Amino acid sequence: MLISSTHLHVPALLPIPIIRKLLLTGQNPFPEIGSEYKAFKPFLPQNEKVSYIGIRPSDDYAAYLQKLFKAQSALVPMVLTGSGERAAIIDCPNSKIADARMNEEGYNLLIPLADGKGIAIKRP
Amino acid sequence: MTLLISVFSVGIIGALAAICLLRGQNLPVRWLFITAAAFPLGFSIISLLLFFTYLIHPVSGFKVTSFLLLLLAGAGSVCFFLRKKSSKNLSSALPASWTNSRLFLFWHSFSLVGKILLIAGFIILIWAFLRFLTAYESFTLHDIYGGWDARFCWTLKAKFIVRDPSQWTHLFHDSIGLAHPGYPLLLPGSIAWGWLVHGHEAVIWPPLVAFLFMLSFSSIILWYLWSFSHPICGLLGKAFLLSIYCVIYWSSCQYADVPLAFFITTATVLLTVSLKTSQPGLLWACGWMAGCAAWTKNEGFLLIAILGLITLFSYRKNLQKMKQVFLPFIGGLFLPVSAILILKIFLTEDNGEYLDSGRNLFDCIQALFGRPQHSLTILSGSVSFMTRPEWSGLWFLFGATLLLSLVVFSIKKEKSWPFAAVTGLMLLGYFAVLHLSPHNIVWQMQTAFHRLLIHAAGPALIFTFECWGKILPPLLCEDKKRLLDSWAHSEQT
Questions:
Q1: Could you tell me which residues come within 8 angstroms of residue B226 by beta carbon, excluding any fewer than 6 positions away?
Q2: B203 part of a folded domain
Q3: Which residues from chain B sit within 8 angstroms of residue A30, using beta carbons?
């Protein structure tokens, strides 16, 4: 079948204080897109492209893209590329996967930030 | 406070620009058109100014844009006070049921049926608007950053403009290819403006921009149907649009499709009014709106081609007149189209999966006509999407009206055919383009087809309601109508 079944669903209203907070105080009660990637920023080179190494794209392309773009959104104006830059952000679910991915792409871990996460440098 | 400054700066610039664009032209219920077009016009001017100033000197781009906007506001105010009154008599172009903008001053002139119909129309519109507002607020607050394209294409580009102007050209980088680096910048520029005025990335601004575009989209339909068809059609047309699930959902997703739908509808409306009232000067505004459609999304180029064809067809018997008409149309297109050409030729190497596909004409013809089974899949998919309950029967109504109009409503005589032509040709164009998609066609249609339908929804809705408006009774008592007509005529002369 070309299209799935219909969903004419409208979510329930959110409480008024959230709207008031947004409109009147300008505060953001929602988590910022890619806020978890802000921790990488101080360790990354300025005015230089940086590679993003997460899970293997062929394993789950949608999840890989989602994370890549969250990181890109948080790290603007830095440009994230697939691979090949001098420095790379390592963003894997655990250190085992991170080690495997760094071996595949030819990077060494330079600054570990959490399990499976850190800054890596391209092997000479 | 800064939220109000952002909103008002856009609205005031847009309203003054609308006044300037319509200078010397006669439009019924002018204030409603200006109100409906103000925000999108303001956003288009601001995004273009930001683009050109960032090209010249990005670091001071915001300051220069603000200064230029002040100058434009001054020039617009002068234009407002030196209004040139048109001597154009519109009475031949307006329908018998027409009531002028001073509606409520003449409340006593309406027949009883007219009064009941008007009250019912307003009640339905208010109900539909409140229902829309509730749904929009629910969708927005459950996903404040919008859908994928809103998060990772439109607002992502705006972040490049805002965070470090000296590095803003990174937004055209090939590496962020999925964010469509070659796409035009009306929406990112509009979002960036609010953020620059705020001084931070205010989370409420992108949904507010989407909301303003949606309000303008529905209001332009109200204006046209109220003025050129029947006031009840205007009220019901706007109410119908605000109750279409697809339109509510995609507007709350903060995608560029509703802004594009606004520019497509307004450009078509202006062309039709220009043909109906023989005012070629309106084609300046029509050209600007069509150019802004292309400045919103690449699909706008299809609209420019279609409007160009309609203009050529309309003036095919008078070459001299055709030249006079084409000049303002091209003039209106000039600035937005120049910006897109600069962006596509000098700033980005990635022009998208269609333009950069490397296909030649023969490949395209082969893709279009060489796979009948593929064409059949696209056709059956299109019919399935159009008949889904999310559209509240709009496409069924449009199809039925189109068939009927060829026999009963005589659209050619009424000059409302451009709406049907734009709807038909846009859909035909998308049908052809889907043949060239590099993606799996089922995935492609699931992802994009509803949004493509939104682009043509405005002209389709106007055409449908305008045709059915002919069977509605006039609102005014006959003797009062004669009196008002003579009064309106004497005021114009």
A1: B29, B32, B233, B234, B235
A2: yes
A3: 144-145, 203
